[in-house]
Amino acid sequence: MSDLGLLAYYLGIEVTQKGGEISIKQTGYANKILSDTGMLDCNDAKIPMEPGLKLTKVTEERYVDTTEYRSIIGCLRYLLHTRPDLIVSCKNRKITYEGNQARTKDYGITYGHEGGNRIQGYSDSSYGVNTQEGKGTTGIVFYFGNSPISWSTQKQGTVALFSCESEFIAATAAATQALWLKRLLSKITDTKEQKVTIYVDNKSAIALMKNPVFHGRSKHIDTKYHFIRECVEKDDIVVEHINGEKQRADILTKPLPRIRFVTMRQLLGVKDLLQQ
Fold this sequence. Notes:
Elements: E1 9-10, E2 13-18, E3 21-25, H1 27-36, H2 66-79, H3 87-91, H4 97-104, E4 107-111, E5 119-126, E6 137-144, E7 147-155, H5 163-189, E8 196-200, H6 203-210, H7 227-233, E9 237-241, H8 258-268, E10 270-272
Parallel strand pairs: 5-8, 8-9
Antiparallel strand pairs: 1-2, 2-3, 3-4, 4-10, 5-6, 6-7
Helix pairs in contact: 5-6
């Protein structure tokens, strides 16, 4: 075996290690995507997706090179390893990639020692955004200390009747991820499993999670989503309320206006690594 020194580049991800911190970004990979798609000279875009955009299925048949389309989407999905702020746009297949990436291709994530060895998560949902199917979007992000380590967004499997139910469904998805992460951390560090805190910005949903008694507002919800009730009862997970302005998963559920997007991107943990 050969000692090649500190890791600097791996599968398109650029790694910088200094001052007890590890930073990752994909500047070179972003440039490659822009070059391959002929978008190096495209106009600037301030945000990756227009707020309030309504996505509908195309009724008229149009020719699309499916191979090229899937290739581009695959490239964008791989870019999400260091750019969780673009996840909603990539999932919705409507990203103004060229302009936003031309300005932010040096953005990435830094991992440090701040925040201790604890895992905490944020769970959010958008209710009624998908106008055709009526299904909400779940957004989840988990942190180890102050650094994001896991994030996802997905369309919910069932139609929620109100926002509280949509938040309840999202929190259940976060609970399954929380259990896996805390068990993984316990195995790696050979320590006792610790409770994971999940922050939700809907008080009604939190009350529903902590109430062991089924009632009129929850009896219609699919049984599998009540898994989080058991997690709370066993004290495996703690659910706490957080103000919507500080809900870090908000950026993962829907397109945001420019100022809100920039604020949430910084809160999420994505920053300009070129200026560091």
